[in-house]
Amino acid sequence: MDISLSGILEIVGSLDDRIGEDTARERFRLFLNKNVTEVGQIRDYVNECLLISGPQYNKALQDLINFIGSFLGFEVTYGRYRGTPGQIGFDGYWKSPAQPNGFHVVIETKTTENYAIKTAALLGYINDLISQKTIPSQEDALGLYVVGRPDPELKQLENAILAEKRSDQLRIISVESLLSLAEMMNEYDVSHDDILAVIRPSSPTIDPIVDLMARLIVPPQPPEPSEKTIMVTQTPTLDTEASYWLTPVRSDDEATAEDTIVTLVGKQHIYAFGERTPGRKHIKPGDWICFYATGKGVVAHARVASVPRKELNPHVRHSDRYPWVFDLDTEVVYLHDPVIIDPTVRANLDGFTGKDANKNWAWYVQATNRISEHDFSILTRK
Question: In this predicted structure, what is the pLDDT of residue 219?
């Protein structure tokens, strides 16, 4: 069903904690249960929540995160939007049937990390549920923070968990990685037990493990020619027929995707690939490349001005992992006006011909891919 989140919220009304079957929150949750069957649809709605600020979208994000839990095989209890005396104030409570006592995940959603977060609150919810005998014991429970827009500069949640030595009780995951887990379970041979194993690692941050899994399941690319073949046969010139590329840029512990794009594309007029980046040995001068900031959209494009050369460029973070640097020109950066790859856009892309544009669509932006000129023109408004 091609209806935007804003359209749904206009229909259901203002989300609040009023009780009853015909309340806005129940209408919204009923709509999700009856109409949203693909993770790609949830991804569209989550992206809309993160692009539009306001209490209505923050509440919708909380419900959407809980809805993802049902895709992961949990029995989900939705929490209140706002705390109230006498009631446990969790944002969500997920129960897994995987163990004799089940396993219990208490959810706290955060749109950003811009405000101080006290871990005692989430630990308190767990203790209250144990006191009520909803959760058998501490060993059977985990507190999980789900963050909409992680801030690599703050990292205050991770720092707090480590400083308080709570890594055995609390975890953090971005909503982007939570969606990736749901897509893996929906599309690949990933079970609920596998999801539990990922959620309960030794480190407090789950994203690196999810990122590794996502890279492992990217469809195999055509075999690359050898370096010798490249040297002998590939001496591209500007009059060679241009190819078009889309490459994803992810935020990490040191910088946001947008910061990376501004630094490399906007200021240094370069970009860098890793040894195994698909297309690294094929990209050539005269090609065009667009940059997808994960969870936001296409925010820049440029023309390729050189073949990749192996060098440790000081402007490239983790240059040992991304040593193949190539020059760019004709750069255009539009961070504040991204091209969002929503259902309407996907329906017009060649890459989705014969595919369900509402189904899992992250494959299109999970790895560097050659795309058609038509798709490039749509994604860059050229």
Answer: 54
What pLDDT was estimated at residue 361? 87
Domains of the chain in start order, with CATH, are 5-216 (3.40.91.30), 227-380 (3.10.590.10)
Please state the separation of Cα 337 from the chain's center in Å. 19
The pair of three-digit structure tokens given for residue 52, joined into one six-digit string = 């539009």
Q: Which of 371, 365, 156 is nearest to 257 (CA)?
A: 365
Q: Which is it for the CA torsion 362, 153, 106, 51, positive or negative?
A: negative
β-strand 297-304 against 324-333: which pairing, if any?
antiparallel
pLDDT (tens digit, 9 = 90+) per residue, 339-367? 999 999 999 999 999 888 777 788 899 88
* Residue 315, Ramachandran bin (φ over 0: left; ψ between -120 and 50: alpha; else beta): alpha
Q: Enter the tokens of residue 115.
A: 């405000």
Q: Would the pTM count as exceeding 0.90? A: no
Q: What HEC string does 75-106 produce? A: EEEECCCCCCCCCCCCCEEEEECCCCCCEEEE
- Bridge partners (DSSP) listed for residue 292: 248, 298
**pLDDT at residue 222 greater than cutoff 70:** no
Please say whether the beta carbons of 302 and 331 come within 8 A: yes
pLDDT of the residue at 153: 61
**Whole-number average pLDDT of the chain:** 87
CA proximity to 144, closest of 92, 70, 84: 92
Confidence (pLDDT) at 215: 57
Distance CA 96, CA 194 (A): 12
Which pLDDT belongs to residue 175?
A: 94
